[in-house]
Amino acid sequence: MRSVRVALGERSYNIHVGGGLLPRLGEYCRQARLGERCAVITDNLVGARYADIAVRALKQGGFVPKVITIPAGESSKSLKMAGECHDQLAAHHLERRSFVIA
User: Fold this and answer.
1) Which regions of the chain are under pLDDT 50?
2) Which pTM value belongs to this model?
């Protein structure tokens, strides 16, 4: 595993890069002292392969994840889709300490 430090004073954090990290996602998020609620935003292709692993890891870390799946492709990169994601984030009661994983 390789780590890159993002230096932001009190808000500094590490980015971990490597194989086999996804099952430890909840552990890493817990170490970052993030809020309980979170969202995993993915497209239907990536989500089919990785969303269940991410959700399981987040739940094991004590989080309450919501998966938001959008269609794969350039057409999903739109303000309309951003608005739909925003609506789902609000419905899941994400707040200031909540976080989003994409």
Assistant:
1) none
2) 0.85
